Amino acid sequence: xxxxxxxxxxxxxxxxxxxxxxxxxxxxxxxxxxxxxxxxxxxxxxxxxxxxxxxxxxxxxxxxxxxxxxxxxxxxxxxxxxxxxxxxxxxxxxxxxxxxxxxxxxxxxxxxxxxxxxxxxxxxxxxxxxxxxxxxxxxxxxxxxxxxxxxxxxxxxxxxxxxxxxxxxxxxxxxxxxxxxxxxxxxxxxxxxxxxxxxxxxxxxxxxxxxxxxxxxxxxxxxxxxxxxxxxxxxxxxxxxxxxxxxxxxxxxxxxxxxxxxxxxxxxxxxxxxxxxxxxxxxxxxxxxxxxxxxxxxxxxxxxxxxxxxxxxxxxxxxxxxxxxxxxxxxxxxxxxxxxxxxxxxxxxxxxxxxxxxxxxxxxxxxxxxxx
Amino acid sequence: xxxxxxxxxxxxxxxxxxxxxxxxxxxxxxxxxxxxxxxxxxxxxxxxxxxxxxxxxxxxxxxxxxxxxxxxxxxxxxxxxxxxxxxxxxxxxxxxxxxxxxxxxxxxxxxxxxxxxxxxxxxxxxxxxxxxxxxxxxxxxxxxxxxxxxxxxxxxxxxxxxxxxxxxxxxxxxxxxxxxxxxxxxxxxxxxxxxxxxxxxxxxxxxxxxxxxxxxxxxxxxxxxxxxxxxxxxxxxxxxxxxxxxxxxxxxxxxxxxxxxxxxxxxxxxxxxxxxxxxxxxxxxxxxxxxxxxxxxxxxxxxxxxxxxxxxxxxxxxxxxxxxxxxxxxxxxxxxxxxxxxxxxxxxxxxxxx
Amino acid sequence: xxxxxxxxxxxxxxxxxxxxxxxxxxxxxxxxxxxxxxxxxxxxxxxxxxxxxxxxxxxxxxxxxxxxxxxxxxxxxxxxxxxxxxxxxxxxxxxxxxxxxxxxxxxxxxxxxxxxxxxxxxxxxxxxxxxxxxxxxxxxxxxxxxxxxxxxxxxxxxxxxxxxxxxxxxxxxxxxxxxxxxxxxxxxxxxxxxxxxxxxxxxxxxxxxxxxxxxxxxxxxxxxxxxxxxxxxxxxxxxxxxxxxxxxxxxxxxxxxxxxxxxxxxxxxxxxxxxxxxxxxxxxxxxxxxxxxxxxxxxxxxxxxxxxxxxxxxxxxxxxxxxxxxxxxxxxxxxxxxxxxxxxxxxxxxxxxxxxxxxxxxxxxxxxxxxxxxxxxxxxxxxxxxxxxxxxxxxxxxxxxxxxxxxxxxxxxxxxxxxxxxxxxxxxxxxxxxxxxxxxxxxxxxxxxxxxxxxxxxxxxxxxxxxxxxxxxxxxxxxxxxxxxxxxxxxxxxxxxxxxxxxxxxxxx
Lengths: 372, 354, 509
Known about the structure:
The complex is a heterotrimer. Chain B is built from twelve helices and twelve strands. Chain B is an alpha/beta fold.
């Protein structure tokens, strides 16, 4: 670690490539919060202050419960965010996380309902099933891209719809609950173990999903930064021609990247539905988590650790939005506005990066920078 | 830099001031299921019932949206409502069965009203379950439609959940019953009885409804929540009528002939009257049908040409008294047909319960 | 005598760099004035300012003694300033005439006055001896003729101040002679010319005076006949330059690479762009394939290295049939490849320098243990290359390749490829766009490799380079090898005849 000093900070500002990126992500967040605040001001100026305060502090409002709940909300978003980020590092835009998530969720729920003979391993196998089917679904655009040069964006968008409708068909055929017009509930042994089972006084929904998310963060971080495999993926992502020149098998890497990306989205689906009372529906609409993952991946600068924090931030917003209902009478949709604005601002990150660099050059006094 | 500091200071002041203000409390709470209170259907009907009653009785009220659809999130919302001072929590929809089942034991001091379902583990002493006889409501609508001249009928249900199925069965029964009375033949083929698989509006639903109308359907009963608005828009385009559901939907479109209502308002009012009058029917399951004014068509019959308030009242009293035993399932429908000597049923068990 | 153009104390700053720092230039009527400098010395910036492409920060421009403001190329055109760009700006599917009048069309009630334009073009081409068929399509005429079209375009717009940006880079020696003649004709007719170049020979042959730029600064203006080439070079580079490369006779040994009737297709058109090419490459020699750009050299290298499949024929490496080997296998079995496009193929620009140094060898057990990188070993390896090949960069091994200069990028690639210790080195235009210092370094490195017994296949467009480095020369024209030469027994003019397809002999491999 660098020694912390004001001069060191200025140096980091001036030199580090990442500083401008991090700053532009923070600007995106502040922009989103500002617009949310303005909307609240427009609706009810007397409550806007407390509204913003609630959004920012909701996580801590109800002690360990709200804290656990925040983390719980962030889990699927962290996972879809990493799914998108991982593919993106290989130069692929996986807009199909939603379809992979849906198919993975179906597989997890199917195993959760039927394979009750597994005992304590039940939920683990269900999550693995989700990962495998998600991987299968992700590999399709990968194969098409590698061997037929089909644009992965188009292929994965289409597979979102195919996955969504196919899951409806499969649910209706195999695991349908007529009474509720939804999928059946997984067996209790397939639910992700909850923290409240360990600490009986704990009241949040926080479950093993977060541990899974942390494992995925760690594994993807290590793959991308420490291994020859990650090196190949990034190399293909940055420069396909140079990778080919170097003898790296770009087809294999494209397929692997999409497969892993799909597996992570599949795990996200498993964590979403191996939860009591969350039943897969047969409504023909796409799950939003996959798309939110794109935004979180952007905000997290396509790095697993960045996505972890961006996802936790998302969870905190959700939690804050929830409490907005008691501290003010603002509708929780304010949170959706804030997140949408953050997405827009993240997409403008490139612009911010340039602007931030410009401002740094102007603001940071040259004498502070020193020379190397 | 100075400007930034100013902004920062200003914001801090706003926060500090805001944080000092205490939050209000709300005695009556509603939790929405996955829709919102403006779903023009179930949530909205319940919410309007609460608003009406609370305003009349000067009580505080609020609604809460769960952050996701899961038992834990529903329970969390219920507890959020309780933390905000709720003494009675009203939850519309079968999805709340588990959450209310848990909440009624965790919070014995709070009363719960679960609409359309029974809590898991049974109805607690501090809970009342409210069910509706949707088939009776559907019967009234089917009867009125045929009496008004409709001969070719259609039904679009959202998803084949029990309540929607009951609407559909009652609607079939009512239509054939009226046809028999009038001595006319009606057409209600199996391919005009469908479940859309969604409660959401879409162009797809509109196109489908429009094709039915263009193919000769006189009227479509849309027991499909928000998807009903797509049917309305198709009916407008075809210059024909449809039948709304749950609440009086006539204000949404001129094409709404009538609506097969569940009187959510009166269900809510009954529960709230009881709660604040210290006669809360805790532990009970109330089934609201024609016999206790729980289902109805709207009072306004101005869009009918051949069906009047008098006709309606006559029919209603016969349903209420049990003189007409409205069927609620396919099996009952079949026996209803033979008991009443009706013929021409084209819709089979697998259509009604896919 | 009033100068036609006077640029006084021009300063132009880009973020982080002073591209022109107080530069002055004076163009006299009827003269050919050379603008000499290395890549990045600020020649193009200065001319872009004159042509209205960039606004100037400080200084002033006078045309025929009057101060003017040139805000865009249209202003420049109105003042009679025209520019022949290094990369021609012509539409392939339009005729010569259409290209000339494009943007300057005379119309009569909405109809083009084709006949008048036609006559004017013919008159101009006769007056200035610019032979070209006005009705031919651009894609059907040679590069030299295309250049004439560019010149005609300026003349058609009545330009009397002509700027030529590196005009000889794409021409054969014969075409260069013709161009120089044309330029002389132009000045005789009263035109004034600025010639941007880094080739001393051309300046010597044609320029009256020469202004030298170095690192954005004006070093001075000299009368060409008063100074020696050595003096010019020194002014350009800032130090004494040794022109002679120290090179002993070659000692060719084993054949390590052999092409037998290689044919490679263009991926789009499915036409063969390398046709039945056969040659042998031996250890201890530099074999050069000379030719004008776009005659199949690029594709030949792709075929040898595996970037494109070999459609027919055979490739032998160390006697083994390598025709269908993967790129990886060819890398491992002894081919080092210094690619033509260093930014497209040579480097991953968003990787750090050290990551670029292991591009082919990331999977070597020196650099990883069971898939996990040994970062220290990579760092050491990169630092060694950086030191040995004098790669200069801001943050050493951590520098992003994108932020490095072209010369240092090229040295990094050179170092990486040579350090792989292969015995075949394929170098494609290794000195393109580099300054004199880097060129010297690369030339000496290639000769050293040869002397160490490596086989070097050099692809070059620069005849100077070809003559200096080669032990044997093959000339490629339209995908075929059309001549084989011993550099001691040929000269640039003979090579030029073969390169332009005017002559052809059977090449025996």
